[in-house]
Amino acid sequence: MMSFSPLEWQIVRFTLAVCAFSTLLILPVGLATAWLLDRYHWPGKLLVETIVTLPLVLPPVATGLVLLKLFGRRGPIGYFLSQHFDVDVVFTWRAVVLATAVMSFPLLVRSARVGFQGVDQRLEQIARTLGASDVRVFFTITLPLASRGITAGIVLAFARAVGEFGATIIVAGNIPGRTTTLSLEIFSAVQLGHDATAYRLLIVCVVVAFSAVWLSEVLMKRRSMG
Amino acid sequence: MRISVLILTAVLAGCTVNGAEVNVYAAASLTDVMKEIASAYEKESGDKISFNFGASSLLARQIIERAPADMFLSADEAKMDQLEQAGLIATETRRDLLSNLLVIVVPSDSKLVIASPEELVSKSQKIAVADPRAVPAGIYTKEYLTRLGLWQKLESKIVPTENVRAALAAAESGNVDAGFVYQTDASISSKVRVAFTVAVEQGPPIRYPVALIKEAKEKSAAAKFLAYLQSASARKTFERYGFIVKF
Amino acid sequence: MVKRSPYEETIDGMKLAIRQLSLRLQQFTLGVDLDIQHPRTAIFGPSGAGKTSLLEIIAGLRKPESAKISFNGQLFDDSGRNYSLPVRLRKLGYVPQYDSLFPHLSVQRNLLYGSNRKPKDHTLNFHHVIDFLEIGHLLDRHVHSLSRGENQRVVIARALLSVPQLLLLDEPLTSLDAKLKNAILQQLQALHREFAIPLLFVTHDPAEAIAICEEALLLQAGRITARGNPAELLG
């Protein structure tokens, strides 16, 4: 019962690769957004906060629908991509990255924002008196001091990506070998009555989730020991 | 005074005097035709028909898990056989009700023209098909394409969908180049056109069996509705939608 | 005799010109208009008089409502022309009242933050400062393991290592016991002789002002009410 077929391995590898990629993708934008939201006020800030939180609050399939309309071949972004770059998003692995990125983005931003909030800005000031540029201050003082929140954000985002289902199935479909992720395959297995497969893949999910949380705990312990 | 009239009307609308509620689980491709037949029947009989439409594979699984169905209308025999083997249907009520034809549809504004399914190999990149592992429409499609020796070549282009109506929707949206659906699905949609029809002799034998569930709550009401489904007026409606009638 | 400093870039001079500085604080308005010319000047006053705010404005960490400030000929602030030199370009060493070591860096990395040198490049200047402040044994320690006295010496050393043209110290000796206070006081006294860097020293303790500085400015409720020799003014 515990031996995995090549197809199942492919699904596990695909899921981990896609989720790692999408988490890396949202990292710069997510951190920048979190930092801007923490440090600045501007007219329309509330609108930005709301949009960033939407995927967290909307039913995932609703978010998937929005993405389908935007990135479908006839949608504004999808049409542009297919005409100018000959790139198809919907029903390809790119849609999986898109769905997981969008759904996990708010989690990263929220956690990172809390991380930035906790940074003593006086220390940033001191760094400036020592001659550091704003960029250097950000990378040598702000980021490290916010690293607990940021690490938590990355772990949450990754875990959310691995568990993503609703938006993915709408915008990427469940195409064996091409867009089928761990969650989608568990769904199929349940639908088809292949319970053994479903349980095997469930165990994989547990192992992934466990490792992610364990890793984040280790990383955060190291930080606090200086 | 007006409020109590409203409440009374609502209550009366909610319950039909002496009316039973029959739960019919039916294949997704039957959505529109069954709704029309049922509404005509409801006026005549005073009974209410509730539907659960979906892929026959999904419905069969639900019935196996003891979902409260009174009648099952499947798009292929395999799913009905599954239930029969599990002892869940009243076998004496089982019969073949309808047949259908497979067609290849394309978005209505698509310029794609094909003379045979073979041309899909070179002229398309994504083809929507109801999940060929479980859903009847997909199983029929796979059977057909395998018989033509095209399944291997087209397999990588297939986008499996949850049921045949989802395949239709995918074709309508333009996110796929073509889709395999039933003739009856194509005829209710204005956003696709039929690019190729699989002739009866060349396609797989498509059968829609119907049967009453043994543990049905509303056995007699369901039997009455089953009889109605084989009536002359029902036949007319089925044929109007493009179904091939087998009774 | 002023010892020739190993720092070639050190400027011995103190010419801090503050014109029309104004900032509304909670209880009063901070208003200062004067020149500071002694290389060891104390800003003395009771707590809440505005001493920290004044120091922060000079450092560029706080924005005044109006001010024209220049140091050794270099313009720091000119509110009339909406000009303010960024903090990092002012080359000032700032030793605040609060704990200002970077908690995520070791003592050594803290020290080297302001100097553009990699830890491996141990030059004479680095050792000189370390030895002078007697913190050589603390280099690999974690910041949170330092005592308050050790902490302050490291902060001062860090500021020195950034080769500042002026050192601003905000009550650096508070919450230190008498013995430690004296030790660091002596180091601060010698600091100017050793490194030829002018300092502006904020304190509410007359003894500190007298021990270290040549001139004291008395700040009361936001205004300089007196200035002169610390011993005469405060003794």
Question: Could you provide a short overview of the structure?
Answer:
The complex is a heterotrimer of chains A (about 230), B (about 250) and C (about 240). Chain A is mostly helical.
Characterization of the model:
The complex is a heterotrimer of chains A (226), B (247) and C (235). Chain A has helices at 6-39, 45-57, 60-71, 76-84, 93-117, 121-129, 134-145, 147-162, 166-171, 182-192, 195-224. Chain A has 226 residues and is an all-alpha fold. Chain A has one domain: MetI-like fold (Orthogonal Bundle), CATH 1.10.3720. The N and C termini of chain A lie far apart (45 Å). Chain B has eleven helices and eleven strands. Chain B folds into two domains: 2-99 and 208-245, D-Maltodextrin-Binding Protein, domain 2, CATH 3.40.190.10; 102-197, Periplasmic binding protein-like II (D-Maltodextrin-Binding Protein, domain 2), CATH 3.40.190.10. Chain B is globular. In chain B, helix 3 packs parallel to helix 4 (77-85). In chain B, 45% of the residues are buried. In chain C, the strands form two sheets. In chain C, strands 7-8-9-3-10-11 form a six-stranded mixed beta sheet, sandwiched between helices. A five-stranded antiparallel beta sheet of chain C has the order 2-1-4-5-6, with helices on one face. With 235 residues, chain C is α/β, with parallel strands linked by helices. Chain C is globular, with a radius of gyration of 17 Å. Chain C has a single domain (16-234), classed as 3-Layer(aba) Sandwich (Rossmann fold). Chain C contains seven helices and eleven strands. The two termini of chain C are 26 Å apart.
Series of secondary-structure elements of chain B, N-terminal to C-terminal: HEHEHEHEEHEHHEHEHEEHHE
Radius of gyration of chain B: 20 Å
Major sheet description of chain B:
6 strands, mixed
| Helicity level of chain C | 25-40%
Q: Please give the number of β-strands of chain B.
A: 11
Largest sheet of chain C: 6 strands, mixed
Number of helices of chain B: 11
CATH topology of chain C: Rossmann fold
Mean of residue pLDDT of chain C? 86
Any guess at the CATH architecture of the largest domain in chain B? 3-Layer(aba) Sandwich
Cα-atom Rg of chain C, whole angstroms? 17 Å
What class would the helix/strand composition of chain C place it in? alpha/beta
Uncertain spans of chain B = none
Strand content of chain C: 25-35%
